[in-house]
Specification:
There is one protein chain. The protein is an all-alpha fold. The chain has a single domain, classed as DhaL domain (Serine Threonine Protein Phosphatase 5, Tetratricopeptide repeat), CATH 1.25.40.340. The protein has 9 helices and 2 strands. It has a two-stranded antiparallel sheet.
Length: about 210
């Protein structure tokens, strides 16, 4: 079971991880994008960190919806709308919930992924955040259906996200600013896939603690 306190801790941990990795993400983005992914994500999640203090007594759906609105209004580039959409969709399946079971978490991930794909018109192997997110969710749901514990399933999901992130290196970018580079985007790790991996890794850390 995941409590709403853990959801808040997850978002807080992710904000801290983004602050630590701001330069790294921006460096990745400077190779194939606008060199602002780390800066934008850090700005948005700094605002999220402030907002978390105001939603501690709310249900999980309200928490995630508040986070989504904060990101959409404060993050520039593509990452604001995409991460904002992820959390907005996630809020619809967690409305009025005070805690989540392993199936609820799978539903949260799945509807979030569907929203991101719809918003960004991207699929697997387009060299985007989808390349980390989709394999992670597939692996998570497989492991839960096999009777694995939530934490063990999340460990598998994080490994799948990491592999997906690394698998973006040889790909040609087909979406976003990176797609303008064509073949020159080969050899670079996608920053969105990297921040997605960090997001899932942050959740695992909180659950393990």
């Amino acid at each position: 079971m995941i409590t709403k306190k853990q959801i808040i801790q997850w978002l807080d941990e992710f904000a801290n991880v983004l602050a630590t990795n701001k330069e790294y993400l921006t460096e990745l983005d400077s190779a194939i994008g606008d060199a602002d992914h780390g800066i934008n994500m850090n700005r948005g999640f700094s605002k999220v960190k402030e907002k978390l203090l105001t939603v501690e007594d709310k249900d999980i759906g309200t928490i995630l919806k508040t986070i989504s609105m904060t990101l959409i209004s404060s993050v520039g580039g593509a990452s604001g709308p995409l991460y904002g959409t992820f959390f907005l969709k996630a809020s619809t399946v967690t409305a009025n919930k005070e805690d989540l079971n392993s199936k609820d978490l799978g539903d949260l991930f799945q509807i979030g992924l569907d929203g991101v794909k719809q918003r960004g018109k991207a699929n697997l192997d387009d060299k985007t955040m989808i390349d980390a997110l989709e394999p992670a969710i597939i692996r998570y749901k497989e492991k839960i259906s096999e009777g694995e514990s939530l934490i063990d399933a999340m460990k598998e999901a994080v490994t799948a996200a990491e592999n997906g992130m690394k698998n973006t290196i040889p790909l040609v970018a087909r979406k976003g600013r990176a797609s303008y580079l064509g073949e020159r985007s080969i050899g670079h790790q996608d920053p969105g896939a990297t921040s997605t991996y960090l997001m899932l890794k942050s959740l695992l850390k909180v659950l393990e603690n």
